[in-house]
Amino acid sequence: MIPKILIIDDEVAIRDMVTFALERQEFAVQSAEDCHAALLNMAEIRPDLILLDWMLPDMSGVDLARRLRREENYHDIPIIMLTARGEDEDKIRGLESGADDYMTKPFSPGELVARIKAVLRRTGPAHGDERLKEGGLEIDLQGHRVTANGEAVELGPTEFRLLQFFMSHTERVYSRSQVLDQVWGNNVYIGDRTVDVHIRRLRKALEPSGLERHIQTVRGSGYRFSTKE
């Protein structure tokens, strides 16, 4: 099936350039100039990935990302943030809003295509009907659902993959670099601090159940999933 990509950017030149590059790679591309138009578009055609500009005329991309992560129909759509803001603090803010990756303008079409393919690979559907159960948490890999003490938990695609990895390798400590390799793959564009941001997002989603304690920081070493007190 051809992946459907939605570009949300108010710059016509950016939309045209990205559309041309993606269509050459046989992606199905839709575009919108602001958040309102994007939401109308998504109601008609659900995208497989969103390219989201930070600065938009009616709502910031950060606010839209947060809104999408709260909505049941859209919370699992991967988002790549596009912005001219290149400071580390801005990147972290973009990731914390719900983005799965971050690109600073100007960018090359080739790098953008590589990022899109990498994000789609790591956030794609799991195969089989396996379920993981540990310490009150349960993951339905086929249905892409998570429950904590029997209550549904809404996770973005990267947090889902992160939790899946940890629950598949309980009680073992992984460095940030190891987590990057296992969850993100060999993606040279992602930095170690990205792991910390997604760990915080995962813990926050688990806080209402009290099960965020299973995601443990091991000082000087990295992270582990443990049900031991």
- Strand proportion, as a percent range, falls in 15-25%
CA radius of gyration is 18 Å
**CATH architecture assignment of the largest domain:** 3-Layer(aba) Sandwich
CATH class of the largest domain: Alpha Beta
CATH homologous superfamily caption of the largest domain: Response regulator
Report low-confidence residues grouped into runs of 5 or more. Answer: none
User: What is the percent of helical residues?
Assistant: 40-55%
Coarse shape: globular
- Total number of domains: 2
E-strand count:
11
Mean pLDDT: 89
Alpha plus pi helix count: 8
Q: Major sheet: size, sense and barrel closure?
A: 5 strands, parallel
What pattern of helices and strands is seen along the backbone? EHEHEHEHEHEEEEHHHEE
Structural class: alpha/beta
Short description:
With about 230 residues, this protein is α/β, with parallel strands linked by helices. About 40% of the residues lie in helices and about 20% in strands.
What can you tell me about this protein's structure?
The N and C termini lie far apart (45 Å). The chain has helices at 12-24, 35-44, 61-70, 88-96, 109-123, 157-168, 176-184, 192-206; strands spanning 4-8, 28-32, 49-53, 79-83, 101-104, 131-134, 137-140, 145-148, 151-153, 215-218, 222-225. 41% of the residues lie in helices and 21% in strands. The protein is an alpha/beta fold. The chain folds into two domains: 4-123, 3-Layer(aba) Sandwich (Rossmann fold), CATH 3.40.50; 131-225, Arc Repressor Mutant, subunit A (Orthogonal Bundle). The strands form three sheets. A five-stranded parallel beta sheet has the order 2-1-3-4-5, sandwiched between helices. A four-stranded antiparallel beta sheet has the order 6-7-8-9, with helices on one face. The chain is globular and about 55 Å long. Helix 6 crosses helix 8 and helix 7 (176-184) packs across helix 8 (192-206). The chain has eight helices and eleven strands.
